[in-house]
Amino acid sequence: MLNVNYPGRPIAQVAGTVVARQGSGTDLRVAFVQSGENEYRAQVSRSDPPAERDSGEHWLERGYVTVTPVSGAVEDRRAPRDIEPRLGRL
Question: Is residue 43 within 8 Å of residue 33, measured between CB atoms?
Fold first, then answer.
């Protein structure tokens, strides 16, 4: 699939279009904070990490429309595989 982002500026100020790679950083952090006895709430915060050179964020910050090919394959190849047989029992 393709992820397309457009910079928040008038079309006359758009620098162009670039095919970029997906960055690996995230600016979203979630922490669970106790809000009562036996009660916790998710607290979301954002930070502004620097964009990786040549990532979609890098080019978007510079005024370009970005087109980033992304994959739906989300997995951690380093995760232990011994959980797979147990998944069928859930």
Answer: yes
| Number of Cβ within a 10 Å radius of residue 82 | 7
- Does residue 84 lie in a domain region? no
SS3 of residue 43 by DSSP: strand
Number of domains in the chain: 1
- Span 14-66, pLDDT tens digits: 999 999 888 766 666 788 888 888 888 888 876 655 666 778 888 998 999 99
Going by DSSP bridges, is the β-strand pair 64-69/16-19 parallel, antiparallel, or unpaired? parallel
Q: Which residues contact 25 (CB under 8 A, 6 or more apart)?
A: 49, 51, 52, 57
Domain that holds residue 44: 2-73
Is 81 contained in some domain? no
- What whole-number distance in Å separates Cα of residue 26 and Cα of residue 47? 8
